[in-house]
Amino acid sequence: MRTSVLSAWLLAALPAVASAQEAGNLLGDPFVQVTAAMAACPVPRGPYVTADSVRRAAHGRTQMGGSCYRVGRCRLPNAYLYDREIIPRVSLYIREDGRFADTSVWVVGAARMVTLMGCVQSKEQADALQQAVALVDDVLGVANLLMVGTQGPPPYRLVGDTTPDF
């Protein structure tokens, strides 16, 4: 009887154990804070995926940009290989520009796409920042998730949110 109860408990616990898996920035997409002038700015979570998501995305991420490279339009064989070069240049450009010193901005790179998150002083400043980042060499596009001010719900996930990106 005691063995049956223990067996039943173990069987019931298996789905919980199986669903507990590693999660976080498992793909290593660059994610950095560039400016920090608005202390009350909601902190973005950054890239967050599960191990299962990584396995499902592996083939697509491996192939991303391969055809571009094969035909000679791109210098690297995979779009994600650019990100480790792009994000430091984007960060430097934002900091050195001067127009964005009064902001709190984080950037993430994935497949030559740069996502801007954080807080700015005005819509015009957000637009200017998006346009400036688009000028950085090898940037394919810019997603603007910046919010004006620090009040209200941000258009991005916050630190502590464990909902996977995909």
UniProtKB/TrEMBL annotation:
Give start and end of each BON domain.
Answer: 94-148
Q: Which domain of life is it from?
A: Bacteria
Q: Which UniProt keywords apply?
A: Signal
Q: Where is the signal peptide?
A: 1-18
Pfam families hit by this protein: BON
Protein name (record) = Transporter
